[in-house]
Write a structure and sequence with these properties.
- Helix content is 24%, strand content 28%.
- It is of the alpha/beta class.
- A hairpin with a 5-residue loop joins strand 10 and strand 11.
Amino acid sequence: MSVGWLFTDRCGGVSAAPYEGANLGLHVGDDPQAVSANRAELSSRIGGPGLATMSQVHGSTVLTAVTAGDIGEADALVSTTPGIALVVQVADCVPVLLADESAGVIGAVHAGWRGAAVDVVASAVDRMQQLGAHVGAMQAYVGPAICGSCYEVGPEVVEQVGKVMPCAPGRTSWGTAAVDLRAGMRERLERLGIRSELVGGCTYEHPETYFSYRRDGVTGRQAGVIWMR
């Protein structure tokens, strides 16, 4: 059994502005038929597995997916079931994909600043261990998200995130308080004993490539996707 994974962008797809073009989010006001077409194209591109999605609420709930479809309200999905693809939808937040290929356990995590502050990635790792994964054998992929130079936040956010991810607090390019969630996530994964790879760039800085809620307000969602063949 092998693991496949990818991070999508906004390129291609059939959605019209302001969701142009490969929007995967059903909850953002886009035409549901367009979103369904974009999701079907994604499933076809990765070999046909059904997509398992979640209603993301910026918390630390982890659900185990055994079928495709909307699994429920959560910010992380884990699975040992081949033939389904776990999907995390984002438009500035950090998508994290996790896999212990030898144990046959995968995970997909949604981490904005609230998720980072409640350590959602550690909750996902704990659940994966309960399913037989080992941290020393796990690999993580940290996908496109808003960078620390662009992600201005208030002091209370800096404090809450900094307690879990000490290296995340910083300054924007214009000198105000910020958090770098991708750097913080990589450091948190390292402390958990998990190798990680940074994939893609800043969602805010590249409107031609990525959706960004902070930049555009009304916009679509790209995704991190992981599955077992």
